[in-house]
Amino acid sequence: MIPRSAKISANLAAMEAAVREFRQSPTAQIVLHGFTDGRGKPEYNIKLSRQRAEAVAAYLTKRFGVPASRIKIVPHGAVPERDLQGVSSEREGRRVVIEVVR
Question: What would the pLDDT profile of 79-98 be if each residue is shown by its tens digit?
Fold first, then answer.
């Protein structure tokens, strides 16, 4: 199997917006949903999606000072094919979604 990367290209504007929203509430948490494309075994995809979310968590902590205790990671693994449409579907599956929960 070809090794795939847990490194992601950061969408800084989206991260900044999420951190601004997060800081508006002292009880808010950030939930990071990690995803992969459909290649590979489900166990591997869960691990990779966790690593992707952990990379974003580390960045949020280091760059923005978000306490790690207020970040939750939810690895989802592969995005179902029916949820991906278009030419860039494989790339779109490899992502982390940031959710701010108040």
Answer: 876 555 554 556 678 899 99
Longest dimension (CA), the chain: 44
pTM of the model: 0.84
Length of the chain: 102
Q: What is the CATH number of domain 12-101?
A: 3.30.1330.60
- Ordered by start, the domain boundaries in the chain are 12-101
Which uninterrupted H or E stretch holds 15? helix 12-23
In angstroms, the CA 98 to CA 80 distance is 19
Report the SS3 class of residue 84. Answer: coil
User: Which H or E run contains 43?
Assistant: helix 42-64
